[in-house]
Amino acid sequence: MKRYIYIIYALCLIGSNTQAQVLWSDDFDNYTLGNLGVINNYANPNPISSQGNWQLSEVPHQNLPGPLHQVTIEAETGRGKVLKIQDIPTPSSAPSIYAMNLYALKEIPDLDTLWSNRTAGNDILKYEGEFYVAFEKRFPTNLGLSIELGRIESNETIDPNIVTPVEFFYSEATKVLTVDAYTQIPIVETIPISPWSWIKVIAYVDYTTGYVYFEIPSTNIAYKSKAPLRSNYFKIFNLLLLTFTSDVTSNNGNRPPCFAKLDNFKVSVVNTLPLSLEKLTAATFTIFPNPVTDIVTITNSNNIGVEGIEVFDINGKKVKSQKFNKENQVQLNLADCATGTYLLYIKTNMGTAVEKVIKK
Hints:
This protein is mainly β and 360 residues long. It has 2 domains: 16-276, Exo-inulinase, domain 1 (Jelly Rolls, Sandwich), CATH 2.60.120.560; 283-359, Immunoglobulin-like (Sandwich). Helices cover 3% and strands 47% of the residues. The strands form 3 sheets. Strands 1, 2, 3, 6, 7, 9, 14, 15, 16, 18, 21, 22, 24 and 25 form a 14-stranded antiparallel sheet that branches. The chain has an 8-stranded mixed sheet with strand order 4-5-8-17-10-11-12-13, with no helix packed on it. Strands 19-20-23 form a 3-stranded antiparallel sheet, with no helix packed on it. A hairpin with a 4-residue loop joins β15 (212-216) and β16. The two termini are 18 Å apart. The model is unreliable at 1-18 and 279-283 (pLDDT under 50).
């Protein structure tokens, strides 16, 4: 039966015939050191743009003075200039202060036109960027950084409320990076990463199939969405949204500032995926019997060890899970599952496969 792997360890990162064509990039080296620009009130209908046409805004809190963040361009050894978002620790006598958000939005200029004029065959958009998070480890509540890709029309105002169908989100509370794509079956995968270091993230959107791929090179892990993008999101994503979240009143403001740094954003078009991602459909699992009454056997001829299986119904709800000890043939009892169609997410030592099974 045909299957799809949506996560695979990038064991081989060489040998690709990808022809990249850069459409847009921003490494901040042409910016002026110091403040990036004005931090607007989130509710301002006519926000003031900053250097590079970034728009900065935060949601004011009635019990706190503002602004509660700084956004600057700073020089960093070995990198040139980088964008830095920093909170301002603030004492407060208010009984409850929730997380404060700083939004930084950037419309990638003329991306539709650049896409229309791309080299023939370059039908995969590649978005990439680097970030560094330095949250005060003693107070990890409500801290995070997200990098989102969205869409705006030419007559729309950039709005932080816009739904963004492709996202990376780092949480200090869990110390994992979550990747997310709004597909028919949403992908939400978490990757442990090391904070206080630069992390490169890459998203590929294949406009011939609608599938989204994520790659985090430092972890040697890549992901494929479990389904194509929803039809209303199958557009060129020309909005870059950064959201920095922190609790400025943690420890009553008696702590070092939390900050994130960002660098080397780039949008390219390519004609093929890297070899590590091309291997996503390399192996085959066999499911039998199918349809099944109670016990189903899962096996493969590639000597891939199965570590666990999660069972989802057709609505995307997880109904069962079971762990295994890296065996290349396992059995799963579906006797307690209702009649219907299910997806098996087979986690292995080489990645995770998706298979369909029918319960009689």
